[in-house]
Q: What sequence folds into this?
């Protein structure tokens, strides 16, 4: 045990039994004062808000506790583990600053969290985004070291999450992470665009095509389409999609797995379908090269018009996690399209 934890009063997070953020930052300052090299790590659980909203606070807290326990088991005595905000964690690796060693331990953390099986959220793959900075290479104060790690973490989020980024000044120094207000304003702007594209004129088909082009480009979604009960009516395929052969998927397969409250089916990794014994849906998605997908029902009151579908086609060793804002935007688009269809009396097949 480092002398810091013997000589100083440190606080413990009640939920995870990890050190508090204040204790972790104090320890970082202690190491800087002693001029001892170390790596400062920030870890953020991806899509935690979705887990909390879908499964409730009690299960969400269990997820945090299980994730923190898994990370502690991985790092063992290599590092000191702490918890900050709700789904934010920290690690300090004293004396560990070599790139290859950091790459190895972070890769292990990501793989183990991906493989973590929690029956309460059986069909969800847990992922982390990790940002790292090193003392004294990247900064000479605790505050600056934390800022560098935040920039690396933010870069990981914009890359698609479920990854780690080791801070390199030439690549990451100019990154400006968005604060809560900026994120809120950004979300408002995106939702405003949905309404603007779909209501720009009376040609709903053109509005949907414009919206698909925007979402495909902005979020780098491989495939967007609308399905009726029998066929795909319109679609947008991203130029970088690993496959171009997207086919109709039966609605009964989708609805049997759909969240009845949100009318959304989100599959972060189709391999989860095997563990949940949904073999037919897995086969259908796998045949099309789809690695993750999101379906939103296009419905208003008791009338169902179809499904808004979004697919990703990552390679076998990749995982593309949907951001909460992406799924929220798709749901807004689906409900807006349904509302327009209801009040105009149009049908998707006739657009």
A:
């Amino acid at each position: 045990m480092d002398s810091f934890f013997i000589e100083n009063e440190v606080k413990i997070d009640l939920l995870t039994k990890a050190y508090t953020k204040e204790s972790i930052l104090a320890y970082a300052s202690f190491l800087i004062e002693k001029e001892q090299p170390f790596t400062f790590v920030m870890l953020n659980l991806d899509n935690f808000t979705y887990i909390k909203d879908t499964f409730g606070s009690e299960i969400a807290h269990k997820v945090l506790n299980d994730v923190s326990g898994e990370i502690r088991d991985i790092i063992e005595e290599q590092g000191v583990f702490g918890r900050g905000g709700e789904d934010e964690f920290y690690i300090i690796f004293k004396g560990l600053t070599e790139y290859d060693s950091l790459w190895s331990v972070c890769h292990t953390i990501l793989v183990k969290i991906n493989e973590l099986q929690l029956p309460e959220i059986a069909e969800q793959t847990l992922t982390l985004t990790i940002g790292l900075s090193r003392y004294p290479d990247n900064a000479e104060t605790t505050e600056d070291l934390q800022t560098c790690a935040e920039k690396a973490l933010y870069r990981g989020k914009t890359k698609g999450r479920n990854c780690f980024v080791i801070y390199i000044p030439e690549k990451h120094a100019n990154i400006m992470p968005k604060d809560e207000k900026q994120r809120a304003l950004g979300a408002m702007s995106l939702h405003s665009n949905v309404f603007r594209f779909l209501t720009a004129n009376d040609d709903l088909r053109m509005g949907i095509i414009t919206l698909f082009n925007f979402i495909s480009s902005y979020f780098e979604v491989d495939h967007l389409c609308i399905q009726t009960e029998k066929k795909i009516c319109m679609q947008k395929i991203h130029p970088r999609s690993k496959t171009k052969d997207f086919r109709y998927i039966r609605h009964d397969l989708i609805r049997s797995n759909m969240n009845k409250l949100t009318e959304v089916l989100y599959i972060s990794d189709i391999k989860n379908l095997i563990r949940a014994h949904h073999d037919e849906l897995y086969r259908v998605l796998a045949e099309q090269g789809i690695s993750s997908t999101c379906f939103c029902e296009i419905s208003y009151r008791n009338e169902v018009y179809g499904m808004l579908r979004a697919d990703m086609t990552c390679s076998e060793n990749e995982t593309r996690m949907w951001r909460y804002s992406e799924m929220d935007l798709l749901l807004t688009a689906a409900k807006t399209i349904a509302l327009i269809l209801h009040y105009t009396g149009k049908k998707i097949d006739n657009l």
Summary: The mean pLDDT is 89. The two ends are 68 Å apart (CA to CA). The chain has two domains: 3-172, 180-350. The domain at 3-172 is CATH 3.30.70.270 (Alpha-Beta Plaits).
